[in-house]
Amino acid sequence: MAEVAQTTAGRTRGMGELIDVEGKTTEIAPFGTTLAALAAERPEIVGLTADMGRYSDILPFRDAFPSRFFNVGMAEQDLIMIAAGLSKVGKIAYCTTYSVFITRRAYDFVAIACAHSKANVKIFAGMPGLVNGYGATHQATEDLNMMRGIADLTIIDPCDATELKQVVRAVADIPGTVYVRSLRGKVPVELNADYRFELGKAKVLREGSAVGIISCGYMSMRARDAADIAAGQGVDAAVLHVGTIKPFDRDGVVAFAAGFDRLIVAENHKTTGGLASLVVEALYDAGIMTPMIKIGLADSFFECGSQEYLEAKYEVDLPRFVRAILENR
Amino acid sequence: MITMKSRNHPPEHPDIAALKLRALNLRRLMLDMASGKGEGYIAQGLGIADCLAALYFHELRYDPAAPDWSDRDRFVLSTGHYAIAMYAVLAEAGYLPIRELASYGLNGSRLPMSTFDDTPGIEMVGGSLGHGLGQSVGMAIGLRLDGSSARVFNELSDGELQEGSTWEAAMGAATFKLDNLVAVIDCNGIQADGPVTVKIDPVADKFIAFGWEAVEIDGNDMQALVTALGNAREANGRPKAIVLRTLPGKGVPTLERRERAHFVRVANDEWDLLKTELETHHG
User: Model ipTM?
Assistant: First the structure.
């Protein structure tokens, strides 16, 4: 399934595919293919979508298990209610649509029907953050902020295809409701095959001594790319990937941060209410006041446009990342 | 207390008189609970008592000794504030000790004034209205996938029909051809601010237009209830809606006449009068 991304000039990426595919090995639809494989072993798994099957990569599961797949139409509240109901009769319900529609539209249902009831509902939320060119209606730039406010909800922001595939399997055995910021289409394979996702454990992806980068989601992939470039200019940055947003690895983050006198926090999210806020809370509580650059989005709504245009405009792209490492010298 | 073990299909000929006596017992228990607390959603509880008696002592299959029996019929109470009625019927059915009802609404009780799913016999966290029908759809799909003959009964209210999520679920139920799903819709004409504020009639016609079978009955008529529930057993690919026209405070004339019936507070010395009214007016 792995292939190297096409780099032919002018070729358009699929909607929601990351810029970072350029030059990297990728896998197509790692979420759906892994779910289909897992479901062959776990008959209690069912899959649902709210008219976003194609764009959430769940179609490999539908094709393998059509009787266990339910498309509820454009009805996100219903999606979450039905998933909760299925869990109450013993199913593990994997459901998909875009992050924005889950978080903004169906919040009460995620909180009460799922999290409060410890429902075995696994939400794979497509195109979180700025990974959508359709403007603010489609950009879940505050989803971490919203979802971390729900008690008993697990939140995972995988880095790449390697981690996402492990997460698809891991969540089946994590009790209760899980919100995963999914990656779709051609997803880069960044992490080594020996990487192991562990719930609630941040992982050092790159050793370094000059700057400590704390990041989540695909920004950890970009952090490594930026660190490699900066290393060529004499600045050696370390990268700590926070794959689990909740429960947050406070001890791991504090221990990592304590080793640096300069920090960068990077996330595909607003810099308010997400990873940066979590890191600041943890460090403050530990008495650490290290200077920090936050790479992320402002408290705003964002316009339509290509991934390249948006990420450059809002200063979350690779050049901005490299600059932050070097400026932080 | 008689412990029910209703694992068999309901009898062909229901004992209407016995069911009416069950409903009276439920109303007695509710008045006891409300008088202990001094307040409560008693009017709705009295209104739905006949339906709960018909369900729990005629239609539903369950086993209070095995609350997690996988093939039990599910009764999903959406209106969490009807907790007082649920606790009464769960005690009458053997899920809860009668003596525990005295803790209704008290701090630390497992019988709070709105239902939560850690109370034995409660299938869903109620209270945030608009949750019940959708979760019932999920349960019905899952039970069918497993080849279970269990059915899902969802109680929801007329005020709750104002929640858009209810209609998302209604569309889904018809789309997925859930003939193992029965909605009992308590149309008592009241909501928190007073009389139902948004025009929701005709209710049955709306469900029919959504692809359901629907019937409207007097929700305080025991014979009509068991007949409608019997008709709803038909496995014809369509979900069933039973629209109940109920009278808030039913059985206690002082409460039947009360204008602000959504949440009732009664002076300490009036409870005995209400209990006397119930004994005088039943049947």
Answer: 0.94
